[in-house]
Design brief:
about 90 residues, mainly alpha, 5 helices, elongated, DNA binding, Timeless, TIM protein
């Protein structure tokens, strides 16, 4: 690739650098990205999250996300994951 030098002007993660040298789309599914390490939300988890949000949304003086995390049946979800999923939904 004659234009590869232009790519070197911008910051690359180790995964992107590996992909540049081995060819694009050379990484297998789930390699090199942190997002793929996060388990996806199942429809049941989304439904539970939606119900918990509507339940604790009206509580005054309390942190909605803390209440959701305390009552979320699936352990291992972080505050950031819950907030990101609520925004996405």
């Amino acid at each position: 690739n004659k234009k590869a030098f232009v790519e070197l002007l911008f910051w690359k993660s180790p995964a992107a650098a590996c992909e540049m040298t081995k060819g694009y789309s050379s990484l297998q599914e789930g390699e090199g990205t942190t997002r793929s390490r996060v388990p996806p939300w199942t429809p049941q988890e989304e439904q539970e999250l939606r119900e918990l949000y509507w339940k604790y949304k009206e509580v005054e003086g309390g942190d909605i996300i803390s209440a959701i995390l305390a009552h979320l049946p699936t352990a291992g979800r972080t505050r950031r994951q819950v907030v990101k999923q609520l925004v996405r939904m």
